[in-house]
């Protein structure tokens, strides 16, 4: 909306004591900016993803939860053009939730769904997944590491609620492992920028374990590594990134 405000003299004028006609100037009232459909869809997707992680775990298998995620992802994809700058992929990405698109999901009956929810809640607490996308010295994307980190509980009561007192402190971590990381190292190739498509082949797997016992390094140490020298000849995988900005990525 607009309104007119009278002003007695122009900006910078010096009063001479003489009277002059009142002057008027027009002001436009700036309204609060309206969020774009992309921003709205992005915020909605983040809220949905975080809720599903809390309810189902990082790996979503529940049928209804998968449908919620699918719809939220589709809304964001439909709100903007797909990305075309592969350099924006470089960096570290923390997984919120993931699911398969072909499998419709498992519609569990009540009791089993409750058990699955408890297991997922434990998974949320102790498991995290991070993806590192790297480039070589020439600035070409050539490697992707997927790292699954597990920080195990120490007592049975950390895993199961409402258990008898004698069993609550039962040690479920006899090796005193504080953290275990499995890193899957892939050779990556950016196949195209439109769509933003990457092909990858598994090259090696590294297991790193840290702990407080005399058998383990408190800062973590690689205890095993498996190299696949012919990984480029094995069947690899491909993922297409359908949304990408500084903070959020959707890959299929």
Task: For the structure shown, list the relevant keywords.
252 residues; alpha+beta; two-stranded antiparallel ribbon; 4 helices; 23% helix; globular
Range of strand content: 25-35%
Oligomeric state of the chains present here: single chain
Task: Report the structural category.
Answer: alpha+beta
DSSP E strands, number:
10
Q: Ranges with pLDDT <50 over ≥5 residues?
A: 6-18
**Major β-sheet annotation:** 8 strands, antiparallel
Termini gap: 45 Å
Query: What is the global morphology?
Result: globular
Query: Total number of helical segments?
Result: 4
- Output the helix-strand order: EEHHEHEEHEEEEE
Query: What percent of residues adopt helix (DSSP H or I)?
Result: 10-25%
Report the radius of gyration as a whole number of Å. Answer: 28 Å
Instruction: Give average pLDDT, whole number.
Output: 80
